[in-house]
């Protein structure tokens, strides 16, 4: 997979999109040391100071659900080498209740872009993220080689993109849905306490308190 590394960019996803529009062929990955306009799901700002791993993978066109699983699982397999980490449905990488990584999937006419951000060597975060964000450095008390972690991530993406959706989905469900009581946080502000009975391949969730479409769910909190 071709790699393009930048010192600074507005957004690796936007840069990957520009490269695609300029005729660069998939697959390739864009990485940056700093993003000045990094973003997460639902257009939220992603704190992107130096010390993090900011990457966007431009791959052959695939369903957004597969892309989300591919991105989340790739980051999970990398991070779990260093510390206990969980995937919070649908796309957050968590250490207990603190976010250490995330995935943003975007589509173009010809390709799928999977943005993956991992907090590696950050020693502090903006005040609004205090207590809600963490990094490998903050958890382990030492700095890590970002290039080494990037290599692990590229290898994980290259391996998993060849896996069929059925197998990826089954592994994702085993990793994410732990059983027992949970709270589903919905986009309309409601919080639903329930036990999840089933998740279908479109990520719609069937529970003891009703059924919920993937597009209506922000995240799921396990009790």
- Supply the number of helical segments: 5
Number of strands: 12
- For this structure, what is the CATH class of the largest domain? Alpha Beta
Task: Choose one word for the global shape.
Answer: globular
Biggest sheet: strand arrangement? 1-2-3-7-6-5-4
CATH architecture assignment name of the largest domain: 2-Layer Sandwich
Give the class from helix and strand content and strand pairing. Answer: alpha+beta
**CATH level 4 superfamily of the largest domain:** Bira Bifunctional Protein, Domain 2
Distance between the termini: 40 Å
CA-atom Rg in angstroms: 17 Å
Polypeptide structure, described:
By secondary structure, the protein is of the alpha+beta class. It has helices at residues 12-21, 64-79, 136-140, 146-160, 165-176; strands spanning 2-9, 28-35, 52-60, 86-88, 92-95, 98-107, 111-119, 181-186, 191-199, 205-207, 210-212, 217-222. The strands form two sheets. It has a seven-stranded mixed sheet with strand order 1-2-3-7-6-5-4, sandwiched between helices. Strands 11-10-9-8-12 form a five-stranded antiparallel sheet, with no helix packed on it. The model has no long low-confidence stretch (mean pLDDT 93). It folds into two domains: 2-175, BirA Bifunctional Protein, domain 2; 177-222, SH3 type barrels (Roll).
